[in-house]
Amino acid sequence: MNNAIQSEILVLRNRPIAYIASINEDGYPQMKAMQVLEHDSMKTHYFSTNTSSKRVQQFLKNPKASVYYCQEVSSYKGALFTGVMEVCTDHDTKAFLWRDGFERYYPKGVDDEDYCVYKFTAETVNYYHGLKNTTLAIEELSS
Q: Which of 32, 115, 120, 141 is the 20 to 30 A CA-CA neighbour of 82?
């Protein structure tokens, strides 16, 4: 595996915003920008949201998802991770992602029933740069 590609994917994955795609009840993809909060490897990415959001219901019905990171300035680059999204409502996962200031949105704190965490587990990543696409199984990348 080309170390330069892996390095570029790592840089993209550490961008502050990612685009999360779910499938709605009519089978159409829906995209949403979300703040990137945590990763524990190239394979696992975490995001927080409201349990009451429509996307939570979409992921509960169909966990297939994608997460896209991109760099728009100078030369365009993108990394599209494809995998599954888990909706986590357990205390430990929610506490792991909790940040100062979240109480503004979740006044009951980490155990607020309207606070949950998305845990995305990637299966593949497609790296795009310079009119070239490279798709890799996530196991081909080191953490």
A: 115
pLDDT greater at residue 43 or residue 5: 43
DSSP the chain: --HHHHHHHHHHHTSSEEEEEEE-TTS-EEEEEEE--EESSSSEEEEEEETTSHHHHHHHH--EEEEEEEE-SSS-EEEEEEEEEEEE-SHHHHHHH--TTGGGT-TTGGG-TTEEEEEEEEEEEEEEETTEEEEEEGGGS--
Q: What is the separation of C-alpha 47 from the centre of its chain, rounded to a whole number of angstroms? A: 6
Q: What does residue 94 show for φ and ψ, rounded to 5 degrees? A: -65, -40
CB atoms within 10 A of CB 35: 11
pLDDT per position as a tens digit, 7-22? 888 888 888 899 999 9
| Residue whose C-alpha is closest to residue 33's, from 19, 12, 48 | 19
Q: Are 57 and 136 in contact (CB under 8 A)?
A: no
78 pLDDT above the threshold of 80: yes
pTM across the whole model: 0.90
Structure tokens at 70: 């991109």
